[in-house]
From TrEMBL:
Pfam families: PCuAC. It comes from the Bacteria. The keyword Signal applies. This is Copper chaperone PCu(A)C. InterPro entries: LpqE-like, Lxx211020-like, PCuAC_sf. It comes from Filomicrobium insigne.
Amino acid sequence: MKKLRLLAIATLAASALAGIAVAHDYEAGALKIDHPWARPSIGETKNSAAYFKIENTGKAADRLVSAKADIAERTELHESVDEGGVAKMLPLKDGIPVPADGEAELKPLGMHVMLMGLKSKLEEGQSFPMTLTFEKQGDVQVEVKIEAGASGHNHSHHH
Ligand SMILES: [Cu+2]
């Protein structure tokens, strides 16, 4: 009986932890990738998006040219735009510029890494690896945390 109770407590603690957004970041040269995260996938939806902030403390501009994650069949850099009340997503063919001594922010309703053809569901509390390729800095490995997100409404449904 005691063992069962302990297990229940551990499960509770784990689910409580999953709800807390723990900041994590990655440094590569003058670049800092701040808190990569993605929303949990909704139902059978095969698409999601990843967000993070890129800080550049260097004297030279850089550019995010692509992102790749094994969890998705395809990834694209997108920007969400509002065209007369209609939300659209446009591919960022020239990538995402990161100005010298500046930053670029990928966020909901803005620029994002589109994850298309998800091979598995994105479950809150889990994470997946993603490779960001920069024009000058090259490849940077990050771990994307799956979170419901503090901004906007929570789309995750529990079945
Ligand atoms: Cu998109």
